[in-house]
Specification:
Layout lengths: L13 H9 L4 H10 L6 H40 L5 H19 L3 H70 L4 H13 L1
């Protein structure tokens, strides 16, 4: 392989070579095409050049994907700053779009197809977990309301019992006062005193 940085005589034919290789031509077929154009090259050298070229193309694509990803992230960040907290529906729609895009790209790349499948599964699991969480929250809220209602009913019943006990004690005291040898004025004064308490 030629040292990095040195130009290859094949670099001048890069566009056509990419076209031929991407169209599925073999090394021998590409070698013959080049021979007809007056370029002599071995299939070994052609293979080395194509391997290096694919790596370079993949690197360019990766850099382009990173740049596009950063732009998308900035756009999403800007949208979130304007309208924070997207709902589950918006997130699910975004997941569907990304999954569809990855699925269409995945027909040529099993790893991408697997990523799309995992992403879709993750979105579905998240939606299911959120729905279950909301259901649990509603049940807990209803249970808390029921317990609070019971507590209030219990407090009310307890107050009623205390009031009835107080009235019964007052009735007993009134009965004692009326049975005592007191003048009607003294009985009235003591009864008023009993009910002031």
């Amino acid at each position: 392989m030629e040292p990095k940085g040195r130009a290859s005589k094949l670099d001048g034919h890069a566009e056509r070579l990419e076209e031929w290789f991407l169209a599925g031509q073999t090394l021998a077929q590409v070698q013959e095409q080049l021979r007809q154009d007056g370029v002599a090259v071995s299939t070994g050298r052609l293979s080395e050049w194509w391997t290096a070229r694919r790596a370079k193309l993949a690197e360019r694509q990766m850099i382009q994907d990173i740049v596009m990803g950063a732009q998308s992230r900035r756009e999403i960040q800007g949208a979130l700053e304007k309208d924070p907290a997207p709902g589950l529906d918006e997130i699910a729609a975004l997941h569907r779009v990304i999954s569809y895009k990855l699925t269409t790209q995945g027909t040529a790349d099993p790893e991408t197809l697997d990523l799309a499948t995992r992403l879709a599964r993750l979105a579905m699991d998240h939606a299911k977990a959120k729905a279950e969480g909301e259901s649990r929250e509603k049940k807990l809220a209803l249970e808390a309301e029921r317990i609070e209602e019971q507590r209030r009913s219990g407090d009310l019943a307890e107050r009623r019992v205390k009031l009835l006990e107080k009235r019964a004690a007052q009735a007993d005291q009134v009965e004692q006062v009326t049975g005592a040898n007191l003048t009607p004025e003294e009985q009235a004064a003591r009864i008023r005193e009993i009910f002031k308490r």
